[in-house]
Specification:
alpha/beta, Rossmann fold, Rna Polymerase Sigma Factor, Chain: A, 4-stranded mixed beta sheet, binds NADPH dihydro-nicotinamide-adenine-dinucleotide phosphate, binds magnesium ion
Length: 380
């Protein structure tokens, strides 16, 4: 199988390359293209090791540096949007792993679908913002869409336990993040160092903050709606601190099927690469006796208002999830640059949402414009 990894320098991208190594001799995967934004050191190291046809830095200012670094290799060095689109659409490519963070992942992922590539989808922001267009394109171009987000991979796997028409609801689990059980008062002075310490997962900075605010779970509710074609009211978020059950589905006979495993993104990445087969993984097994208990709780949507805001924007549909997503990207970046406090992330997203009038029917160009407008007109 030939793959392109969009976002190879990130948390998902680097783990995907580890999966490629793990599968050597079991299922050989050739990496045709890798892309990053600005981490040219790592792009260079990855290019030397995996010898892709193309390596892309999205940041055009880094192009000449990367080109000089790889001058002695046969790898073609590209940059910017065109480079990303090229990496997403290479002729010999079978599957594209979409693991760029944020809205920046949308256009190359759509290009990959239009070029008939199967998609392993980590970038949830694409489905949050362009869900209907994305799913229409998946159908139109007849590509396979394999979820990489651990909850959605779990739901996808659990759905094998019954027929689609027998599905009653989805139980989307959430670790609760580092601040589960805290009051708004206790969250006032949270620092970015505290928010970046996730109890169970090591991930990129943006999704780690989203996990602390529970915006991540809100984005995942919208992601599940599109991936599995379910109503918002049939998706229940359940806090499960141990992150062993990665999500569950309940069928009409009240049978619940769950997918479990230790928290490792390498599992869903590997499953997306090997589906419909299951192949050997060197990861550890769950020791249930050692764990001894699994716990569940309802999320507190008053404290973690981002979850409620995302559900609300998701239900409104149209351009509102794009407004929500862009506002969240702006706010998270501002928080990471010490410009706003932790609680202001949700407050800002709520304020920006109230400033936009919904438009139910939209094109890709419309949401690109909405995203741009939020970033330009509501700068922090
Ligand atoms: P990281 O921040 O670790 O990596 C992001 C990747 O995107 C890097 O390769 C980065 O390049 C690249 N990138 C950043 N900005 C741009 C841009 N403007 N244009 C092109 N490329 C860019 O993120 P994660 O790996 O944590 O997450 C990636 C996606 O996967 C997100 O959508 C996230 O929600 C989703 N996801 C992640 C999980 C995880 O465990 N990490 C779990 C489930 C979903 P560079 O390094 O050079 O800056
Ligand atoms: Mg997830």
């Amino acid at each position: 199988m030939n793959i392109s990894i969009l976002g190879s320098t990130g948390s998902i991208g680097t783990q995907a390359l580890e999966v490629v190594d793990d599968l050597k001799g079991i299922k050989d995967i050739t990496v045709l293209a890798i892309t990053g934004n600005s981490n040219v050191e790592l792009l260079e190291a990855q290019a030397r090791r995996y010898k892709p046809q193309i390596v892309v830095c999205a940041d055009e200012n880094k192009y000449s540096d990367l080109k000089v670094r790889l001058a002695d290799t046969n790898t073609l060095v590209l940059c910017g949007q065109e480079g990303l689109n090229r990496a997403a659409t290479l002729d010999e490519c079978d599957m594209v792993l979409s693991s760029i963070v944020g809205f920046a992942g949308l256009v190359p992922t759509m290009k990959a679908i239009e070029a008939g590539k199967d998609i392993a989808l980590a970038n949830k922001e694409t489905l949050v913002t362009a869900g209907s267009l994305f799913m229409d394109a998946v159908k139109k171009y007849g590509v396979r869409l394999l979820p990489v987000d651990s909850e959605h991979s779990a739901i996808f796997q659990s759905l094998h336990g019954g027929k689609r028409a027998e599905l009653r609801k989805i139980l989307l689990t959430a670790s609760g993040g580092p601040f589960f059980g805290k009051s708004r008062d206790e969250l006032k002075n949270i620092t970015k160092e505290q928010a970046l310490k996730h109890p169970n997962w090591t991930m990129g900075a943006k999704i780690t903050i989203d996990s602390a605010t529970l915006m991540n779970k809100g984005l995942e509710v919208i992601e599940a709606k599109w991936l599995f074609d379910v109503d918002f009211d049939d998706i229940e978020v359940l806090v499960h601190r141990e992150s062993i059950i990665h999500s569950m589905v309940e069928f009409c006979d009240r049978s619940v099927i769950a997918q479990m495993g230790l928290p490792s993104m390498k599992h869903p990445i590997q499953y997306a690469f090997t589906y419909p087969e299951r192949l050997f993984s060197p990861d550890e097994s769950v020791d249930f006796a050692e764990l001894s208990r699994l716990t569940f709780a309802k999320p507190d949507e008053d404290v973690f208002c981002c979850l409620a805001l995302a559900k609300e924007a998701g239900k409104m549909g149209g351009i509102m999830p794009t407004v929500l997503n862009a506002a969240n990207e702006v706010a998270v970046s501002a928080f990471l640059h010490d410009k706003i406090g932790f609680l202001e992330i949700g407050e800002y997203v709520g304020e920006v949402l109230r400033k936009y009038k919904n438009k139910l029917n939209f094109t890709l160009e419309d949401i690109i414009e909405v995203d741009r407008s939020v970033r330009m007109e509501h700068k922090i």
